[in-house]
Amino acid sequence: MKKLSIALLIMLFVGVKVHAQRDQGPQGPGSLVFWENLSKLCGRSFEGEMINASENDQFYGKKLVMHVRTCEDGKITIPFHVGDDHSRTWVLTMEEGNVIKLKHDHRHEDGSEDRVTQYGGISSNTGMARLQFFPADKETTDLIPYAATNVWWISLDDTSFSYNLRRINNDSSINVKFDLTKEVETPPTPWGWED
Q1: Could you tell me the pTM of the whole model?
Q2: DSSP-derived pairing of the beta strands 99-106 and 119-122
Q3: Which of 73, 78, 67, 131 is nearest to 104 (CA)?
């Protein structure tokens, strides 16, 4: 099973690399189209659900809301609210070469940074307009050695946004899908951020 999972992830990576060229239409590289489409959601919030969640999952049974909070030049912040826990924010940054960096900003309720924060990865290429992959970067490997094989990916289309994590060295995965057709009330300001 583990070998099959690794093979599937490798095929996905190769597929993204091979098809990234095809995904460059008149609007430019896939990463720029993805960025533009994500920016159109700025200021809006959407409820999500865990896909294939087990009762042991930390998100199980909790209300999950993403809020595309800020869209500055080269930076998009998306707080991910889990019930009454407002500690998580996904931070996307456009890097040189039109690749996107994903970082996870974790805070305590008093606003101070969690011991484990700022982990994530940089897309290995410009990706596709609807899909971006983020293999764990060196900072993540140094901070969380067991996360060296983590791969995150975000998919985005007209009706949904999904955040995904696969740990290649085991069967653990996280998949949260948000319905973009139903906007919800904006959650509170995430911990450690200012309006």
Answers
A1: 0.85
A2: antiparallel
A3: 78
For residues 111 and 191, give the distance between their C-alpha atoms in angstroms, rounded to a whole number.
Answer: 5
Which DSSP helix (H) or strand (E) runs through 76? strand 75-82
Please return the burial class of 62, using the count of CB atoms within 10 Å of its CB with bins 0-12, 13-18 and 19+.
middle
Q: Where are the alpha helices (DSSP H) in 110-177?
A: 138-143
Nearest Cα residue to 129 out of 43, 16, 46: 16
129 Cβ contact list (under 8 Å, min separation 6): 23, 25, 27, 30, 33, 34, 37
pLDDT tens track for 127-172: 999 999 999 999 999 999 999 999 999 999 999 999 999 988 787 7
Please list the residues that pair with 65 across neighbouring strands: 47, 81
> What single string gives the DSSP state of each residue in 78-128?
EEEEETTEEEEEEEEEEETTTEEEEEEEEB-TTSPBPSS-SEEEE-SS--B
Q: Please determine, for residue 20, whether its predicted confidence score (pLDDT) is greater than 90.
A: no
- Give the span between the Cα atoms of 173 and 192, in whole angstroms: 27
For the chain, the structural domain boundaries read 2-43+63-154+165-173
**Percent of the chain whose predicted confidence (pLDDT) is above 90:** 73
